[in-house]
Amino acid sequence: MVLPSLKLQDLIEQIRGAKTQAQEREVIQKECAHIRASFRDGDPLHRHRQLAKLLYVHMLGYPAHFGQMECLKLIASTRFTDKRVGYLGAMLLLDERQDAHLLITNSIKNDMSQGVPAVQGLALCTLSTMGSAEMCRDLASEVEKLLLQPSPYVRKKAVLTAVHMIRKVPELSSIFLPPCTQLLRERHHGILLGTVTLITELCERSPAALKHFRKMVPQLVQILRTLVTTGYSKEHSISGISDPFLQVQILRLLRILGRNHDESSDAMNDLLAQVATNTDTSRNAGNAVLFETVMTIMDIRSAAGLRVLAVNILGRFLLNSDKNIRYVALTSLLRLVQSDHSAVQRHRPTVVECLQEPDASLSRRALELSLALVNSSNVRAMMQELQTFLSSCPPDLRADCASGILLAAERFAPNKRWHIDTILRVLTMAGIYVRDDAVANLIQLIGGAQELHAYSVRRLYSALAEDISQQPTVQVATWCIGEYGDLLWEGSCEESEPLQVEEEEVLTLLERVLQSHLSLPATRGYALTALMKLSTRLRGDNNRIRQVVSVYGSCLDVELQQRAVEYNALFRKYDHMRAAILEKMPVVEPSGPQADEEAKESGEAVPSPSEPQASKLMDLLDLLDGSSGEAQQLPPMAPSPEDSLVHLLDLPCDPPAPACSSSAAHPAGAPPLPVDDGTRCLRPTRELLLSPTPAPIPNLRVFEREGLQINLSFVRPPETPSLLLITVTATNTSGGDVTHFICQAAVPKSFQLQLQPPSGDTVPAQGGLPMTQLLRILNPNKAPLRLKLRLTYTHFGQSVQEIFEVNNLPVETWQ
């Protein structure tokens, strides 16, 4: 006996009328009990009604898994009302993670072979929604037959199902190539739109399909030209734009077909120019078509004039009142700035105006694009605009703005004085937001510009006297005063208004820094060292400096206390050596890509990475211990390897006895000196150096996208042939930093993999310092190596995840 239950409409009214969540749960639990009882009794007439109520309960978030088998029974029924609810339940309650979904494969196949379009449509919709890879392989031939059915309704459903199948099983692409050629001649909007989508999926997943459909570019061009000139049908027009959805889909397909193919690109150039010039931009639909046109022009091998037209369209988008359109324009220009820098440069004033946007996402994109537009010809004007923005930008943008200004100034500085002034202004305005290396870089820059020492120390002294709250500025200023403080009262700087400074004023200012509650421990360390440096440069006595230093001998900060104690010892015990110890720091040689560029411009020889360097001797111990292996080429033997290696490597053994020709050191008749006593522990190192140097393994580039490049370099230590050391090097030539960078690797089970910590998680923009990570792979069986990498990072504000397999590793890595 079936218990009485509510109708679907009554159930909805009771649930909506529940005043509390407890009342709602009570109603649903009571009705679910009736539904279970009805399923147990096997009432075939009301089964679809009970399942419909269960589906509504499922939509509210309550469990409804006990209705899965009822869906299969309804699908197998001959009544259309049962099939309709059964297929709907299958789409909602079943997925490919459950084995029950495979039981409806035969029912779907039987329904697709029927001649009833409504039933065929239900089967196709279900297959396209929850069809697994196994179901797609079993039913692909049935869907292929339905693609050429006379009913437009069935053909449209079959095309969408084919799209799902290609996404699930790309190997099925060969089955759907012939029908697509015929379907492109359709006049039905839904079929044509679905066919273009299907061809796009095929071309993205199959090189054979891409080659096949490139022959159909003229046909696609003609379809799009008809849409633009005569229109398709009034019912599909939006805001005066003829079928914008179909136009956008065809443009995306043309972009794929024309990429890296001259013939296809030439065939669509005229049409793209026509679409770009004749599309109305007063409505959002027209802007969508124009945007896809611009992306297609930039991806294919288009003419130079057409690319300039595309950039100009994006420039007009920047003047649009819609924030979304302006954001899309800024993001697109940021992608194009590397390939079409001169064309994007024409819209620099508009981009700079976008910095003042109240919307944070717009101003961030404008900042990234502005930094990418900086070059040697406009660096002064752009730095002025960016510094103005830095003074008023929101706090969450100050770090990016300050870092970008410092990087651009380092790369394009016209002279050192301008460079110093720029960094000093940034430190003064946003000192707490700058990168950690800004202080060291400015100190190195000032130290290398001897002609600007007097100018720099006066500028920094004035800035320090005005404000001691910006810690980076204070640190640089105290260092500079300690090194070149004697230039403050010598008056050697050629200034229109010379600065008159007394020695006591300088000491008072440094004491203020030491006593300020705003000063960090590192800043106090700079100030204490500056006082010690001035003790050798002052013309008067040093009693005041000695008193200050002695006070900090009992400081709670251990680092500061240690400095003070050591400085007190200099005064008491080693006063005769103090002047020599506290001399001015020597000029630090610059390093990095910027230094290499300056050396090339000045005609100096820059050592290539492949040249042997003496410093690589330090890596030999790591090689012997098996803990590292980054040295790619062993250096040649030195004339006296024993002496140099004992000194450099500091091996735990006695040094060799000095060679002496006097009879006192080596009496006549005495046995010869045991030469091996001092070099027995050097034998492995000496044999390694004297052994033949293995041929270097060529580097391999495995990834490149939007300026981010991943290169692999390989080393196999001679003493451990089964060990392979892979250095992953990430470089970034784009205009925006790559942040939150994570590189993960996997190898087959027969290998052993160990990932060393990376050098950082940020790859700086515009060719900054690369990020490196070491992979240690043990291959005892010398099997062919396959490597799978997963890259996760954030670039231009978008999170990116790439997974790919490296199968083309050099044979030297495993043989």
Automatic annotation (TrEMBL):
Keyword set includes Membrane: yes
Pfam families: Adaptin_N, Alpha_adaptinC2
Chief location of this protein within or outside the cell: membrane
Swiss-Prot/TrEMBL keywords: Cytoplasmic vesicle, Golgi apparatus, Membrane, Protein transport, Transport
Residue ranges, annotated region (Disordered): 589-612
Record InterPro entries: Adaptor_Complx_Large_Subunit, AP1_complex_gsu, ARM-like, ARM-type_fold, Clathrin/coatomer_adapt-like_N, Clathrin_a/b/g-adaptin_app_Ig, Clathrin_app_Ig-like_sf, GAE_dom
Membrane topology qualifier: Peripheral membrane protein
Stored PROSITE patterns: GAE (PS50180)
SMART domains in alphabetical order: Alpha_adaptinC2
The keyword Protein transport appears for this protein: yes
Family, similarity comment: Belongs to the adaptor complexes large subunit family.
Name by which UniProt lists this protein: AP-1 complex subunit gamma
